[in-house]
Automatic annotation (TrEMBL):
The keyword Ligase does not apply. The keyword Oxidoreductase applies. Monomer. Belongs to the peroxiredoxin family. BCP/PrxQ subfamily. This is thioredoxin-dependent peroxiredoxin. One of its GO terms (molecular function) is peroxidase activity. The lineage of its organism: Bacteria, Pseudomonadati, Bacteroidota, Sphingobacteriia, Sphingobacteriales. It comes from Mucilaginibacter dorajii. Keywords: Antioxidant, Disulfide bond, Oxidoreductase, Peroxidase, Redox-active center. Thiol-specific peroxidase that catalyzes the reduction of hydrogen peroxide and organic hydroperoxides to water and alcohols, respectively. Plays a role in cell protection against oxidative stress by detoxifying peroxides and as sensor of hydrogen peroxide-mediated signaling events. Its EC number is 1.11.1.24. Residues 4-153 form the Thioredoxin domain. The gene is bcp. It comes from the Bacteria.
């Protein structure tokens, strides 16, 4: 899993979002970020997690946190996902797997005895100085925003 830990500098990245805009972590300097990695758009667990962040987005913003989702799906898939579920935040496309690898969440997985590489569902809370203040590796997809809110009280 991730070799990054709380207190580490978050790796910078530059990638396209669901609208084709270039987004980088450096663009968010001075802002608190919830950077959540999820395996795939429009699948049950990923939809539950993203919709939970959507439903609690204003609470997170009011506490000074913006939300950015990252998966290896392309921009078109992200746009469809955003539109279908009215997601109000940025979804970054990491088709080259540079970001998932930099954050250590591109891992070997096992499903029904079949091994494959995939994204480990992980949430990083990053402060305005770009430091990882919290890391959630056991994400509760239906309560992911509450997990964050419990940590940033």
């Amino acid at each position: 899993m991730s070799t990054l830990k709380e207190g580490d500098k978050a790796p910078d990245f530059t990638a396209k979002d669901q609208n084709g805009n270039t987004v980088s972590l450096a663009d968010h300097k001075g802002k608190n970020i919830i950077l959540y990695f999820y395996p795939k758009d429009d699948t049950p667990g990923c939809t539950a997690e993203s919709c939970d962040f959507r439903d609690n987005y204003q609470s997170l913003l009011s506490k000074g946190y913006d939300v950015i989702g990252v998966s290896t799906d392309d921009e078109k898939s992200h746009k469809k996902f955003e539109t279908k579920y009215s997601l109000p935040f940025t979804l970054i496309s990491d088709t080259e797997k540079a970001i998932v690898e930099a954050y250590g969440v591109w891992v070997e997985k096992n499903m029904y005895g079949k091994q494959y590489m995939g994204t480990a569902r992980t949430t990083f809370i990053i402060n305005g100085d770009g430091i990882i203040t919290h890391l959630i590796s056991k994400v509760d997809t239906k309560n992911s925003s509450q997990q964050v809110l419990d940590l940033v009280k």
